[in-house]
Amino acid sequence: GLSYETALDSHHWRIITSAFSHISILHLVFNMSALWSLGIIEKLGDIGLGVEYYLHYSLLLVVLSALLVLGIYHVLIQKFKLDYFRRVTAVGYSCVVFGWMTILSANQPSSKLELFGFLSLPISFAPFESLIFTSIIVPQASFIGHLSGIIVGYSIAWGLIHGMNNYWAVSMLGWIVLVFVYSLKKSGTYDFSFLVIESVTDPSLPSVRF
């Protein structure tokens, strides 16, 4: 999972892997059920959504929601001195699921979100209803993580974050792979023998201190 402490220890690769880890079967089933229902997004190309849009912004939601979680943890720890959040671990695809609920609620407010095959929620209220619902049925679930997904989702739906296309998606994916491999090496999680990280400081040059 992803926590403030692991991020400080250069485990930046967890930004990606934490999205695909889950704390329980119920947590996984909830996300898969919601994601299945949100598949309608792929069929809404006529209103600017569709398959490409879904793939592009899923990538963005994974990264931005995780970074926002770390940003909120930082404020809670540094500003409000709540050291408890140093070790709070965020796991699961919920950030992305909540982001897509929010985007769909803004673009197709008349839709319904089907959960577990029998629970039907109006999509316009689904993000916040699901926020409360998951906090009850999965107490260990990250409220901040889900809220971050909603915030990023609204940022995308309202056009504050826009412009993703194939070029930017591939470029972003390339940078993610580079940072992923670099952080695996730097954190000592995996030893890539062919990859050597050297200091940019040249000891033969005089240093200037301020």
UniProtKB/TrEMBL annotation:
<comment type="similarity">
    <text>Belongs to the peptidase S54 family.</text>
</comment>
<feature type="domain" description="Peptidase S54 rhomboid">
    <location>
        <begin position="11"/>
        <end position="161"/>
    </location>
</feature>
<feature type="transmembrane region" description="Helical">
    <location>
        <begin position="167"/>
        <end position="184"/>
    </location>
</feature>
<protein>
    <recommendedName>
        <fullName>Peptidase S54 rhomboid domain-containing protein</fullName>
    </recommendedName>
</protein>
<keyword id="KW-0812">Transmembrane</keyword>
<feature type="transmembrane region" description="Helical">
    <location>
        <begin position="20"/>
        <end position="41"/>
    </location>
</feature>
<keyword id="KW-1133">Transmembrane helix</keyword>
<dbReference type="InterPro" id="IPR022764">
    <property type="entry name" value="Peptidase_S54_rhomboid_dom"/>
</dbReference>
<dbReference type="InterPro" id="IPR035952">
    <property type="entry name" value="Rhomboid-like_sf"/>
</dbReference>
<dbReference type="GO" id="GO:0016020">
    <property type="term" value="C:membrane"/>
</dbReference>
<feature type="transmembrane region" description="Helical">
    <location>
        <begin position="84"/>
        <end position="103"/>
    </location>
</feature>
<dbReference type="GO" id="GO:0004252">
    <property type="term" value="F:serine-type endopeptidase activity"/>
</dbReference>
<dbReference type="InterPro" id="IPR050925">
    <property type="entry name" value="Rhomboid_protease_S54"/>
</dbReference>
<feature type="transmembrane region" description="Helical">
    <location>
        <begin position="143"/>
        <end position="161"/>
    </location>
</feature>
<dbReference type="Pfam" id="PF01694">
    <property type="entry name" value="Rhomboid"/>
</dbReference>
<feature type="transmembrane region" description="Helical">
    <location>
        <begin position="53"/>
        <end position="77"/>
    </location>
</feature>
<feature type="transmembrane region" description="Helical">
    <location>
        <begin position="115"/>
        <end position="136"/>
    </location>
</feature>
<keyword id="KW-0472">Membrane</keyword>
